Amino acid sequence: MNPPCARCGKIVYPTEKVSCLDKNWHKGCFHCEVCKMTLNMKNYKGYDKKPYCNAVYRLGSLRRSRHALT
Ligand SMILES: [Zn+2]
Ligand SMILES: [Zn+2]
User: Fold this and answer.
1) Is the pLDDT of residue 51 over 50?
2) Rounded to a whole number, what is the largest CA-CA distance in the chain?
3) Cβ neighbours around 67 below 10 Å, total
4) C-alpha to C-alpha distance for 53 and 4, rounded to whole angstroms
5) What are the residues whose beta carbon lies below 5 Å from ligand 2 (ion)?
6) What is the whole-number distance in angstroms between the Cα of residue 62 and the centre of ligand 2?
7) pLDDT of 6-45, one tens digit each?
8) What is the number of the ligand closest to the CA of 31?
9) What predicted TM-score, i.e. pTM, was given to this entire model?
10) Which ligand is nearest to the CA of 43?
11) Is there a contact between 55 and 45 (Cβ–Cβ < 8 Å)?
């Protein structure tokens, strides 16, 4: 059975699947929580089960941006 995407909730088929952070994502849905940059298995940074880009992660702005998102 194909799992739902952690971002959009639609079914993820094996050809477009990214398995990260204990979840499954469409390739296009696996993007940074803050700047929306598309990520992949090699360049993502996981934090709190969500993907972030290197720049955001390094800046240490996660705390602030999490507030901004809510
Ligand atoms: Zn999706
Ligand atoms: Zn980012």
Assistant:
1) yes
2) 39
3) 8
4) 23
5) 32, 34-35, 37, 53, 56
6) 10
7) 999 999 999 999 999 999 999 999 999 999 999 999 999 9
8) 2
9) 0.81
10) 2
11) no
Secondary structure (H, E, C), the chain: CCCECCCCCCECCHHHEEEECCEEEEHHHCECCCCCCECCCCCCEEECCEEECHHHHHHCCHHHHHHHHC
* Ligand 2: centre distance to CA 1 (Å): 31
The CATH number of the domain covering residues in 14-69: 2.10.110.10
Distance from residue 21's CA to the centre of ligand 2 (Å) = 16
| Ligand 1 midpoint to CA 59 (Å) | 27
